[in-house]
């Protein structure tokens, strides 16, 4: 039974916020009331609405890399080249079983289709663990305009912790997705590391590049007036590497480093979208680029995506790798404690690429 709201309730922004954020209905619940116009607090500033108009004006495309190429040096070169020039690429034939991808997508729909009472057990106020959070938008308290997205965020501590606290309807599928993609993640990090003179991913490097993992299940419901809002605002990720599984709907756009245009990342069946995060930009002393991206809202379809954020350990100190500055390169970033960097990111609304300036010398 879809929640109902009389239209008069929508004239009061506080009641929309209460319904969406505090009562746990999310924008999915709002969308399912059949509202015909976008509530005011979702209307983005003019600059963002203008980007919505002009996102598809370019024929640039991010690289698609076939990881099954028998010439591994070619794959490594393509990955590093894309990391430097685009900060984004897609991979196909990546070795992660396709049924694992289908199952985690199905599990994402299962979670968001749960009754509100069930999902609300995982809100910040109710969740029994700080590692599991069901929420909406990005940082509702910091944002001037809200984003048209609900999410379940899962920070991996251990299998036992997941067993105890993660939602039953998606736990096993999400863990399987995380585990089955590890080999590919490690490969990508090896390629990126070798190019920075990092000879091997030993334990120290591993805890720096992939010491912690967060997985989000994202839900972007059908939106009235999608041109007035965004699914996700402009931001770059704070990860070392983000691995994104998206469905066939589309809507992710990346800012081209070469032209500044917004480039659509078309859904390629059975692919992952990989992007460099701020931590990797800092570790590589700016050689690899963490690039701004955003997601359009959609007037016709519900969209899901399932990113894995591969991060340093929270207590890691990140700065330009010694291997990178060994050849006399000037460091452009200072050392920062990774958890401080992340706190800074979540304290403010999505504001493009400004976070990384926090670490600039």
TrEMBL record:
Signal keyword on record: no
Location of the Fe2OG dioxygenase domain: 204-312
Protein name: Feruloyl CoA ortho-hydroxylase 1-like
InterPro entries to which the protein is assigned, alphabetical: DIOX_N (IPR026992), IPNS-like_FE2OG_OXY (IPR044861), IPNS-like_sf (IPR027443), Oxoglu/Fe-dep_dioxygenase_dom (IPR005123), Plant_2OG-oxidoreductases (IPR050295)
Species assigned in the record: Camelina sativa
Family: Belongs to the iron/ascorbate-dependent oxidoreductase family.
Keyword terms of this UniProt record: Iron, Metal-binding, Oxidoreductase
PANTHER family: OXOGLUTARATE/IRON-DEPENDENT DIOXYGENASE
Pfam families associated with the record: 2OG-FeII_Oxy, DIOX_N
């Amino acid at each position: 039974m879809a929640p109902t709201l009389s239209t008069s309730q929508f004239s009061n922004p506080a009641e929309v916020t209460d319904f969406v954020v505090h009562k746990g209905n999310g924008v999915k619940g709002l969308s399912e009331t059949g509202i015909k116009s976008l509530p005011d607090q979702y209307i983005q500033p003019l600059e963002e609405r203008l980007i919505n108009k002009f996102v598809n004006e370019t024929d640039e495309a991010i690289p698609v890399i076939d990881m099954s190429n028998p010439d591994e040096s070619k794959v490594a070169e393509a990955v590093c080249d894309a990391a430097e020039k685009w900060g984004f690429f897609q991979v196909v034939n990546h070795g992660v079983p396709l049924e694992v991808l289908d199952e985690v997508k199905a599990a994402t729909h299962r979670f968001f289709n749960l009754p509100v009472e069930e999902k609300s057990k995982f809100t910040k106020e109710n969740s029994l663990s700080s590692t599991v959070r069901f929420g909406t938008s990005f940082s509702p308290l910091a944002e001037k305009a809200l984003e048209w997205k609900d999410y379940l965020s899962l920070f991996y501590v251990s299998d036992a912790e997941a067993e105890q606290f993660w939602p039953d309807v998606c736990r096993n599928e999400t863990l399987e997705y995380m585990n089955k993609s590890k080999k590919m993640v490690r490969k990508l990090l090896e390629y990126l590391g070798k190019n920075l003179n990092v000879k091997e991913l030993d334990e120290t490097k591993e805890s720096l590049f992939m010491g912690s993992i967060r997985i989000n299940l994202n839900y972007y419901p059908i939106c009235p007036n999608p041109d007035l809002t965004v699914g996700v605002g402009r931001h770059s990720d704070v990860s070392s590497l983000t691995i994104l599984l998206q469905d066939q709907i589309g809507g992710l756009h990346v800012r081209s480093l070469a032209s500044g245009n917004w480039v659509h990342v078309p859904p390629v069946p059975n692919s992952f979208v990989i992007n460099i995060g701020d931590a990797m930009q800092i570790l590589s002393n700016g050689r690899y680029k963490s690039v701004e991206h955003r997601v359009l809202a959609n007037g016709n379809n519900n969209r899901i995506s399932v990113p894995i954020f591969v991060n340093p350990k929270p207590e890691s100190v990140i700065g330009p790798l010694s291997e990178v500055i060994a050849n006399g390169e000037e460091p452009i970033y200072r050392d920062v404690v990774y958890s401080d960097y992340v706190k800074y990111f979540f304290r403010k609304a999505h504001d493009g690429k400004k976070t990384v300036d926090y670490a600039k010398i």
